[in-house]
Amino acid sequence: MQSGTDNRQGDALGFEANLVFSNGSDTLLGIHNDARVNRSLATQEHIGKTSYSAYVQHIQYGTYQGKPACLIGIDFAFRFPPLAGSRFSSAEIEVTFEKVLNIHNPSVRSTDASLDPIVANFAPKTVVGQVKELESTKLFEIEVPVVFETPFGTAGLTSRWSKETKVTEEGRMEIHGNLAQDDDHDDGANSVTWDMTENPISKEGILRSFRGAFILFYRKNEAFWMRVSVKPVVKFSLDPRRLFTKRLVGDKDDPVLLDGQTARGSLSCLGYSAFDSSAFPWHEVLNLPAPLGSKEY
Questions:
Q1: pTM value?
Q2: What do you get for the CA distance between the two ends of the chain, in Å?
Q3: Chain CA centroid to CA 32, Å
Q4: Does 249 reside within a domain?
Q5: Which residue range is the domain that position 272 belongs to?
Q6: 121 belongs to a structural domain
Q7: pLDDT tier for residue 276 given thresholds of 50, 70 and 90
Q8: pLDDT tens across 170-201, in order?
Q9: Does 153 map to a domain?
């Protein structure tokens, strides 16, 4: 799978959020959208070599199950040193879609859930890595003291019993996606979440990049916001003296504005309007290798 690397940022729409030490207000924004449609902008803050990013690579409008729909592809990338304490051991990703009320002010949010786009389908729902094994030996021991009386006084002894067992533990990297639906959105979820965990045996960190794809039902030609939240867990140690005065936070960015009309992405996909067509080139959107014998575009 491809990630939002430097040589593709010029062609990608998106944003990058990194962990930073903040002395300022919690309301400080990393990226201002300023009414731009399909913006292309990245933040650059990071801690050493540790950062994470999200780039929108595909936006397409068409139909799904006969209804107006939008197809979106996002590349998520995580950067951290290998086999280091500063690796990402887990992460939570949430992508939420909302009706636009004011393109100049994304903080003005709709209170009518029926106007928000609905997630009709998404991928991946599950990603699992190779199983890795760790063999270990466990010793189970019981020690029982026994005290008894004899004609010559009190005596005692200790009874010991032990058993040695070889144990094989298995672990693998995992990603699990789910629809996120609250009580207000009873007609359908407007959010998708992914929970990422590292292999607990090898402890090499989470998957460094993957492509997330969404199909949304939306009101034709109406604009909507896409809010992306990435919350990683970093396995590192900080000087505790710094934590008294500084707090580790993530950049807070304006959401991406989609106008309901402007498409961008793979030309081989944009030639199709029905996302549920058997001929639709899903390998292009999901960033998978083309089937053997297929035509190169």
A1: 0.74
A2: 18
A3: 22
A4: yes
A5: 6-126+174-285
A6: yes
A7: very high
A8: 778 899 999 998 889 988 999 999 999 998 88
A9: no
